[in-house]
Design goal:
By secondary structure, the chain is an alpha+beta fold. The chain has five helices and nine strands, in the order H-H-H-H-E-E-E-E-E-E-E-E-E-H. The strands form two sheets. It has a six-stranded antiparallel beta sheet, with no helix packed on it. It has a three-stranded antiparallel beta sheet with strand order 2-1-9, with no helix packed on it.
Length: 182
């Protein structure tokens, strides 16, 4: 129950528009308060030379994130992750999806019905398969994430079908104040 309460608190903070200037990454956060405090109010563009991206990413990550590739279905390490936390961009650390928006779509890729903030996701039309699809990218670093489709669950009806290779996961940890109250 305390984990659920803590996670609901995180979602409420994410939903509020009263964020102040924060760091760009949630990776160092160790408590719910620290974790929510690092959700940026706005993005700060991340631009790197392709040679830098190649040094920072594995060959597979580079293929997916920078060359707009797709990992094979049912192979991603985040597909069956059921822990509470945030899914962040592997390229720049921007928080993109909360675990309570993840659901099992049966497609073989992690699926979410909404991003943490709509402005953290950039969309473009992709014709790579010969028909129009809506590609989704990280709005901060332009990293390819996957695609969004209009066949998801309520409340949005959207399915953000995302490559595990495009994401990192930061597990939510309840802070001491919340833990001591129960």
């Amino acid at each position: 129950m305390k984990n659920y309460f803590s996670f609901c608190l995180v979602i409420l903070v994410l939903a509020s528009a009263s964020c102040q200037t924060q760091p760009k990454s949630v990776k160092g956060a160790t408590s719910v308060n620290e974790w929510t405090a690092v959700i940026p109010a706005a993005i700060e563009r991340v631009e790197k030379e392709e040679s830098v991206w190649k040094q920072e990413l594995t060959e597979e990550e580079y293929y997916v994130i920078r060359e707009k590739g797709t990992e094979r279905s049912f192979t991603g390490d985040l597909l069956d992750n059921k822990k509470e936390g945030l899914y962040t961009c592997r390229g720049c650390g921007l928080p993109l999806f909360a675990s309570d928006t993840k659901y099992k779509s049966g497609t073989g890729w992690p699926s979410y019905f909404q991003p943490v903030k709509k402005e953290f996701i950039k969309e473009d039309t992709d014709y790579n398969l010969g028909y129009a699809r809506t590609e989704v990218m990280c709005a901060q670093c332009d990293g390819h994430l996957g695609h969004v489709f209009p066949d998801g669950p309520k409340p949005t009806g959207l399915r953000y079908c995302i490559n595990s290779l495009s994401l990192d996961f930061v597990e939510a940890k309840p802070d001491a104040a919340v833990s001591n109250q129960e």
